[in-house]
Amino acid sequence: MKTPVLIAVVLTFALLAFGLYQAFVVAPTEQTMGDVQRIFYYHVPSAWTAFLLFFVNFFASIWYLFRRGSVSDAIAVTTAEVGVVFCTIVLITGPIWARPVWGIWWTWDARLTSTLLLWLIYISYLILRRFSTGGQTPVLAAALAVFGFADVPFVYLSIRYFRTQHPQPVIGGGGSLHPAMWHAVLWNWLAFSALAALLCWFRYQLERKQKDVEETIALESMLEGSPR
Amino acid sequence: MSTAAMQESQKSEDFEKAVVQTPARGEPKVLWATLAKDLRLEWRSKDAINSMIFFALLVVVVFSFAFDPNGQESRQIAGGLIWVAFLFAAVVALNQTWARELRNQVLDAYRVSTAAANDLFLAKVLGNFLFVTVLELVMTPIFVVFYNLRVLGAWYLLPVIGVLGTWALVVNGTFFAAISLRTRSREVMLPLILFPISIPALMGMVEATKIILTGESSVKFWIVLLAVYDLVFTIVCLSLFETVLNAE
After folding, report:
1. In this predicted model, what pLDDT tens digit does every residue of B183-222 receive, in sequence order?
2. Residue ranges in chain A whose pLDDT is less than 50
3. Could you tell me which chain A residue has the CA closest to the CA of B184?
4. Number of structural domains in chain A
5. Is residue A110 part of a domain?
6. A66 lies in a domain?
7. Which domain covers residue A97, as residue numbers?
8. How far apart are CA B123 and CA A132, in angstroms?
9. Per-residue exposure over A11-20, b if at least 16 CB sit within 10 Å of its own CB, e if not
């Protein structure tokens, strides 16, 4: 591992440790919910990180459609995969919190359902990438990403028309949060974003190397096949 | 040569003329020639429509065993059942959309011809729209009889929802069929990518139908949602189809 990457790894783990300390020691215990509320410091930063990654995926896909290039496609696949991982964390931590607080694991509320649908769309994106053959994968995947992105407002609007149960969003929702809680959320968000960036970096390198290997194999078989 | 065979070769020449020889961009000839060809093929074989209708019938029968509804309940769930049946049945037709163009490399011929890709796409969408509409016209009376339905709301809005909902399904479905054509196990692939994207539209159709059947509240929100959905995704499809057709 090269030195800058090593430093990034160490920094990320230090940030994660500090985030853990903020969430479990510094942040005060919530009055009505008790300690179970602390899962919030992982739930919300994961959600922000996942949405950010899906956003990057959309722009990388658009970029690919306009200017073909292996870089934008590698970014698209990387952010989609890591985004699905973080979105999965959101969907797992949510019910763990909801069971003691709401008394149910799951409800078909606007925010829950739209997150689940977003997750489904990106799973289908990854399945398409896995199943499509040959060099056309990036184009097909980029087209599907555009569809997925165009779908998000409709998903949100249609489901919002039903009753909503989820707590108001932290930003712009009108809720009040203790400053120490704010610190814990923001530190964890920073830590999770750093972790996501690190994972993306490794996945990106892997994707590029995979492409190199494929190209080398294709080149070799072409040279073998041609008459000397 | 018999008269029928002569007519036959005349028709295929017409098609060839329209698609291969008159390459003018944006000319609706390609659209109508392709649509007429697809309708003629379907009229002779009736492959898509037969399998669709039988499939939808099976879904309706299986659902009636699974839920065993009475009059009041069936009004609540009928919207969901009928649209899910149409969605499943539509996938049968959508899967066949492009498959027949693979024989004799017809799709490759389209790609090298200068005919506008969107004409081809719109012809396929219109064809599927007609097939699914026929399916709906046949299945709706059967459904009403099986589930003892009586409409309590504004019945005249049902065709509006039918048209908007069907367009939402076939415009995306035709596009995704062109995508799944390029994948391994393409018949499985289409529902996997189509269903997640279609969920908001499906919700619109189901809720609007339910509201009309029960006559409970206003259906305006869902009709506007479906109309905007149709508009947005038709634009997305038309702007990306050429890229997907020429992907390699």
Report:
1. 888 788 899 999 999 998 998 898 888 888 888 777 888 8
2. 172-174
3. A131
4. 1
5. yes
6. yes
7. 36-165+178-211
8. 25
9. ebeebbeebb
Long-range Cβ contact pairs of B13-18 (< 8 A, separation 24 or more): none
State the maximum Cα–Cα separation within chain B, in Å, rounded to a whole number.
64
Residues in A touching B183 (Cβ below 8 Å): 128, 131-133, 140
Does some domain include residue A121? Answer: yes
Report d(CA B41, CA B93) in Å as an integer: 13
Gap between the Cα atoms of A181 and A93, Å rounded: 18
Length of chain B in terms of residues written = 248
B229–chain A Cβ distance below 8 A for any pair: yes
Local mean pLDDT, 10-residue blocks, chain B (248 residues):
56 58 60 88 87 89 78 77 90 86 83 85 93 92 83 84 94 92 84 91 89 82 92 94 84
* 0.90 surpassed by complex ipTM: no
pLDDT for A173 equals 47
Instruction: Give dist(CA A145, CA A79) in Å, integer.
Output: 12
Q: pLDDT at position A81, please? A: 93
Query: Measured between beta carbons, which residues in chain A are less than 8 angstroms from residue B193?
Result: 124-125, 127-128, 144
**Contact criterion met (CB < 8 Å) for B193 and A143:** no
C-alpha span between B83 and B59 (Å, rounded): 11
Cβ distance A132 to B183 less than 8 Å, yes or no, reads yes
CB contact under 8 A, B185 and A139: no
The pTM of the full predicted model, rounded to 2 decimals, is: 0.83
Instruction: Give the A-side interface with B, CB within 8 Å.
Output: 65, 117, 120-121, 123-125, 127-128, 131-136, 139-140, 143-144, 146-148, 150-151, 154-155, 157-159, 161
- The domain ranges of chain B are 46-245
Q: Pick left, alpha or beta for residue A30 (phi over 0 → left; psi -120 to 50 → alpha; otherwise beta).
A: beta
Distance from CA of A71 to the nearest CA of B (A): 18
CA-based nearest residue to B222, from B92, B83, B74? B83
Question: Is A185 within a domain?
Answer: yes
